[in-house]
């Protein structure tokens, strides 16, 4: 979990620039694609899931732990960001 938090912190500036909305990139992608932020994020997450799936079924390559860490951490972070988008859209509802 610490690696996930560190990665999110490190990539904040890269993906949000000076925007204080940490979910702004997903909202911008949604606007470009005429869809919802959830669906835009899901499309981006799919790339990571496919990569993990390919690694799991690749019998010819022995991936190092740093590669596994990167792929798994990125996938988890997209899920954390999806949770934030969903929560933001449901601020008037209780959990």
Short description:
The chain has 95 residues and is mostly helical.
Largest sheet: none
Strand content: under 5%
Mean pLDDT over all positions: 90
Number of helices: 4
Number of strands: 0
- The rough form would be described as globular
**What is the rounded Rg?**
15 Å
How does the helix and strand content classify structurally?
mainly alpha
Which bin fits the share of residues in helices? over 70%
Uncertain regions spanning at least 5 consecutive residues:
none
N to C succession of SSEs: HHHH
Primary descriptors:
95 residues; mainly alpha
Structural description of this entry:
With 95 residues, the chain is mainly α. The chain contains four helices and no strands. The radius of gyration is 15 Å and the shape is globular. The two termini are 23 Å apart. The model has no long low-confidence stretch (mean pLDDT 90).
Task: Provide the fold topology.
Layout: H1 2-16, H2 24-33, H3 37-56, H4 65-89
Helix pairs in contact: 1-4, 2-3, 3-4
């Amino acid at each position: 979990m610490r690696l996930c938090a560190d990665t999110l912190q490190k990539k904040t500036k890269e993906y949000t620039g000076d925007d204080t909305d940490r979910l702004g990139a997903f909202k911008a992608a949604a606007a470009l694609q005429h869809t919802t932020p959830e669906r835009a994020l899901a499309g981006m997450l799919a790339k990571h899931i496919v990569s993990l799936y390919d690694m799991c079924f690749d019998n010819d390559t022995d991936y190092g732990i740093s590669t596994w860490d990167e792929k798994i951490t990125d996938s988890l972070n997209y899920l954390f960001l999806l949770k934030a988008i969903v929560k933001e859209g449901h601020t008037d509802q209780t959990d």
